[in-house]
Amino acid sequence: MSGKTRALTNAEKNQSESALGGARLHRALLAWFDVEKRPLPWRATSDPYAIWMSEVMSQQTRVETVIPYYEKFLTAYPTVRTLAEAPVEDVLGLWSGLGYYRRARMLHRTAQEVVARHDGAFPRDKAALESLPGIGPYTAGAVASIAFQEPASVVDGNVVRVFARLFNDDTDGRAPAGLAHFRKRADALVSADRPGDWNQALMELGATVCTPREPRCLLCPLATVCEARSAGTARDLPRLTKKAKPVAAAFDALVVAAPNRVLLAERKADGLFGGLLEPPLFDTAPTLLEAAQQARLAIGDSLGIVQHTLSHRKLSIATHRAVHVLDVMPPLPVSGAYVALHAVEWPLPKDTRVSTLARKILALALET
DNA sequence: AAAGCGGGGAC
DNA sequence: GTCCCAGCTTT
Q: Which residue places its CA closest to the C1' of nucleotide C7?
């Protein structure tokens, strides 16, 4: 209540200051960025395709995690055309382990659209970029500003945190309305001269100095003008509504093995782990037993429970093993979540399209 | 507005 | 264990 009133007051005050304070802010932050920026691989290119690739991979994912995937993809698919022409199965395989697999499917679709509808050249403005699959307000602003020097703003988790502290603004940074509020702040402050560097500098500051738990204010180029620092509220900002806790769910996995192969089920293209391969999961033990009986598979006791937590589910997978020649596919009745069964080489070929969860299940069943 | 959608690093 | 990360899409 009182917090909201205070936030609005700050917002109004800062808008009146921004015309005067903007230039100083830009000088201080950009000078810091010029010296302190990390040498990330996508900072050595101006290719919109490469910039876009790095931004999609970076959605909800730490920069250090992204780097090896970025290198792999640029080597395998150096141009948007090579990506567009690749089988989506291969794209999912290179993406294996990075998570949020819908991003890979949309990456592929967008590459095909850019080739088919834009003759292989990315749209140069934020609005047109935002109409492509998997490109929302953040990614469109990032590509437009970094690759095309459009004075478009970006708001990610870092920018919310930096602005919330800089302006001592306790607007909820996770609610849609709060995000819109911070986008207005970002629009008002984006640099006309160096929009791409300005956006990256805000994010770099959030990632390396203005960190969530213990901000390193002594190293901050904006400490002298930071309102949360003078108010002593930096550690309590930004205000973020709690996320729902992952819900527990249990399944039984069946690993059917031959000497050099393993049976994997292909999930339908959309939804959880869409398009990936995995040992078939059954929603209850009786379902597993009945399926095994129909396929004339003798299954042993559970080898153990694989625990795997996603953003919205806390999974417990009781893992079982059976042996079959796999020269002919056993008639295993699986759930509607699967569209096909495959006998896959074991150990798995490099870049097989499986989740980290599937790798955990296979490791328990076949490497112990 | 809320939920679905991965995995891992930092504390 | 908790938090959250260079978010987007669907309901």
A: A59
Distance, Å, A326 CA → C9 C1': 38
The structural domains of chain A, with segments of one domain joined by +, span: 18-236, 247-366
**Domain A18-236: assigned CATH number:** 1.10.340.30
3-state DSSP of chain A = CHHHHHHHHHHHHHHHHHHHHHHHHHHHHHHHHHHHCCCCHHHHCCCHHHHHHHHHHCCCCCHHHHHHHHHHHHHHCCCHHHHHHCCHHHHHHHHCCCCCCHHHHHHHHHHHHHHHHHCCCCCCCHHHHHCCCCCCHHHHHHHHHHHHCCCCCCCCHHHHHHHHHHCCCCCECCCHHHHHHHHHHHHHHCCCCCHHHHHHHHHHHHHHCCCCCCCCHHHCCCHHHCHHHHHCCHHHCCECCCCCCCEEEEEEEEEEEECCEEEEEEECCCCCCCCCEECCEECCHHHHHHHHHHCCCCCCCCCEEEEEECCCEEEEEEEEEEECCCCCCCCCCCCCCEEEEEEEECCCCCCCCECHHHHHHHHHHHCC
pLDDT in tens, A171-185: 999 999 999 999 999
A354, closest nucleotide (Cα–C1') = B6
CATH superfamily for A247-366 is Nucleoside Triphosphate Pyrophosphohydrolase (3.90.79.10)
Nucleic strand C near CB of residue A212 (< 7 Å): yes
Q: Which residue is nearest to nucleotide B5 (CA to C1')?
A: A100
- The structure's pTM equals 0.94
Specify the length of chain A in residues: 368
Instruction: Please state, in angstroms and rounded to a whole number, the distance separating the CA atoms of residues A9 and A11.
Output: 5
The dihedral built from the CA positions of residue A202, A43, A106 and A363, taken in this order, carries a sign that is negative
- Asked if residue A339 has pLDDT above 60, the reply is yes
- The protein footprint on chain B, as nucleotides within 7 A of a CB, is 1-11
Residue A113 annotated to the active site: no
pLDDT tens for each residue of A235-293: 999 999 988 999 999 999 999 999 999 999 999 999 999 999 999 999 999 999 999 99
Round to a whole number and report the distance in Å from the CA of A156 to the C1' of C4.
12
